[in-house]
Amino acid sequence: MDESRYSVDVGPIDAKPHHFVLVLLDGFSLLAFAASIDALRIANRLSRQTLYTWRLVGENGEAVACSAGTRFQLDGGLDELNRDDIVLVCGGVDVARASTRKILNWLRREARRGVVLGGLCTAGYTLAKAGLLDGRKATIHWENHDSFAEEFEDVHLTKSVFVMDGNRYTTAGGTSSIDLMLKLIGDHHGETLASAVADQMIYSAIRTDQDTQRLSTPTRIGVRHPKLSQVIQMMEAHIEDPISPATLARDVGMSTRQLERLFRRYLNRSPKRYYMELRLEKARNLLMQTDMSVINVALACGFASPSHFSKCYRAQYATTPYRERGVHVSKDATQG
After folding, report:
1. Whole-prediction pTM value?
2. For residues 12 and 196, what is the distance between their CA atoms, to the nearest angstrom?
3. Biggest alpha carbon–alpha carbon distance for the chain
4. What's the rounded Cα separation, in Å, for the pair 28 and 99?
C-alpha cells in the first residue's frame, strides 16, 4: 500500500510535535514496540506533517535485543527529559530481571518532574516496581496477571486492553499498543486521523479501555451453559479460599450430582479436578514469575499443607514445586 497517495487534513498545527521516548528493556516485545511506533509514523505520513517524533533509549545507551533476539541500535541512554515528553517503557520476557535499579531510579526521577509514563506489554511491572502505579488502575499481559496481583496489592489491576489513569498508561501487550496509540492520536488530532491510521494498519476493530484482553474462560473453552459458566467464574474468583462443589452447586441452584454431570459433559472432568487444575496453573505462574516462597505460593492457591501442594503439583506437572523454582532460578542465572 502506497501511503503517500492518501492524506488526512488535520489543519495547521501550532504546537510543536508530541515527542515520545521509548525505553527498550532487555528482552522487550518486538510486536508491542513496532505496533506503537508504526502508528506514529503513519500518523505523520497521512497528515503530511511531523505530528510525532521519537527516540529509542535504554540502560546502556548503545544497543538492546528484543525477545526474538534481534538487536536494536539506541539513540541514547537514560538522560534527563523534557517535561512534556511521553515515556513508553517496552517490556517483554523476564521483565523482573530487566527492571534494574538504574531503570527504576530513572523512572522515579522523571515521574517527580511530571513526565507522562507508560508501560507496554509487561512493563506495567516496571512502573509498579518503581512505585509509580500505587493507587492507580493498570493492566498487564494476562500471563503476568497472577504474579502482578500478588506482588503489587496497592495497584488496581484490571484485565483491560489498555488503561490510562492520569499521566500513567499501561497496555496488555501485543496489538494493544495500537489501541493505546490510536486513542492518543485521536485525543491529539481527532478521530478522523486515528481511524485513517487504523485503516492503514488493517486494524478494523479498534478497542477501548473498556475491552478486555482475553475472552472469559467459559467462552474460550467453548462452554455455553450459563450455570456452568457461572460456576467456573466463581472458581476463578476463589483460588486462595476454594469453595466446595456442594456450595458451588447450591449457589447456582442445582444439585451436586447435576454439577458433576455438567462438568463431565462439557469438560470431561469432575468439578474437583477442574478446580485443582486452576489452582495449580496459578501456582505454576507464581513459581515461575515471582520470588514468593513455595509455602506462600501454596497458601495463595488454597493449599493449607505444603506436602499436599507438592503431591498435587507433582501429579500435574511431573516435578515438584521446589524443582520448578530451582529450574527457573538457574535459567535466570544463565541468562543474566
Report:
1. 0.75
2. 18
3. 70
4. 11
Of 94, 48, 88, the residue nearest 67 (C-alpha): 94
Report whether 5 contacts 19 (CB < 8 A): no
Tens of pLDDT, residue by residue over 104-147, are 999 999 999 999 999 999 999 999 999 999 999 999 998 898 88
Pick the CATH number of 217-335 from 1.10.10.60, 3.30.450.40, 3.30.1330.40, 1.20.120.1200: 1.10.10.60
Please state, in angstroms and rounded to a whole number, the distance separating the CA atoms of residues 145 and 155: 12
Q: Is the dihedral of CA 115, 183, 123, 51 positive or negative?
A: negative
Print burial letters for 104-134: b (CB count within 10 Å at least 16), e (below 16): bebbeebbeeebbbbbbbbbbbbbbbbebbe
Q: What distances in angstroms separate CA 235 from CA 65, 197, 302, one per listed residue?
A: 40, 41, 11
Q: What single DSSP character describes residue 66?
A: B
Above 90 in pLDDT, residue 37? yes
The CATH classification number of 3-200 equals 3.40.50.880
Q: For the chain, give every domain's residue range.
A: 3-200, 217-335
